[in-house]
């Protein structure tokens, strides 16, 4: 596929799926592999049922330099088998390879609902809530893949999530000997890019070892980035916001929220007050995060609406516009005949009932916090608040 890419650019989703399916077959898969275009995944059915979601992998492939793309496909094909290795039956045998992962909370809560009923029985991952937008799960880590630990696995180990998490957190601390990299005095960034950068916010003692002004404040825009500064460092907060803003298009996007470490070692939502020079940027990042959460939930909402014979929900995105110092993020627009959908962390989409207003709405802006434009639809906001190593495959 390399010469094709060099001339015509990245392949379509269908061609990427076919290239990966062929590579997997070439390295030894004997079962029929079905391409599910609607879910954008490859799926093996039968006794050895297995699937791989392609969304993030396709985005990563498109971002790879052309000369590295064939190797990326080959690594994914090998990881296909690694991700199917069985987790040890005994907790003592599994302990040394357990690690915690911080992921989007909505992924844990909604992804099982996208599966067929026959698959849900096997998909009962164990997780706990870390913040309003983030959750923590356990994975069994392998050199080229990670497998989520399910509730039934913990039961078979005769242990609890809390006990296994303590072990996993200790393991993470063991591979976190290096300090964060200093961007400028008072601003720090993770150096590892090993799929566990964001997860290191769980190591609160480690976080506190870095010099910042005020309480530690972090952002985890994607799983390969942990940013740290201080709550009283205006310049540092601005630099952190700029870095986070440049990272929102990463295929392994996590969250645009900002969190402050309190005296009890708990992460609390943190948004600078309205007079802070970077409050608008942080607000936009927060809205981006909420909008992406709504995007991920839209498929489940749409399915439920169809089941109840209700009008379908159409997913569209606001175009990025520039007006004065306002840059509207690409937020999800759940529109048409629904006047209001359930809120996600305090964000409501209020939809016009009049058809003429609805036409104007299509070209409008979504406003949150301070209003930079006098007209347009309004979103009222409450307080709210795998791949190969390097790119590790995770299911």
If you had to describe this structure to a student in words, what would you say it looks like?
There is one protein chain. The chain is an alpha+beta fold and 395 residues long. Among the domains are: 2-82, no CATH class; 91-175, no CATH class; 181-270, no CATH class. It is 33% helix and 18% strand. The chain is built from 13 helices and 18 strands. The chain has helices at residues 2-8, 13-26, 55-63, 69-82, 91-94, 105-110, 117-120, 151-157, 161-174, 204-207, 234-246, 279-307, 355-361; strands at 34-36, 41-44, 50-53, 98-104, 127-129, 134-141, 145-148, 181-184, 187-189, 216-222, 225-230, 259-261, 267-269, 314-317, 322-323, 326-327, 332-335, 393-394. The strands form five sheets. Strands 8-9-11-10-12-13 form a six-stranded antiparallel β-sheet, with helices on one face. Strand 5 and strand 6 form a beta hairpin. Helix 2 packs across helix 4 (69-82). It is globular and about 60 Å long.
* Percentage of residues in DSSP E strands: 15-25%
The spatial strand order of the largest sheet comes to 8-9-11-10-12-13
According to DSSP, the number of beta strands is 18
Our Rg estimate from Cα atoms comes to: 22 Å
Mean pLDDT: 74
Unreliable runs, pLDDT <50, ≥5 residues? Answer: 305-391
Largest sheet entry = 6 strands, antiparallel
Number of helices: 13
Characterize the overall form. globular
Oligomer: single chain
**Which percent bin holds the helix content?**
25-40%
- The helix-and-strand class reads alpha+beta
Q: What distance separates the N and C termini?
A: 25 Å
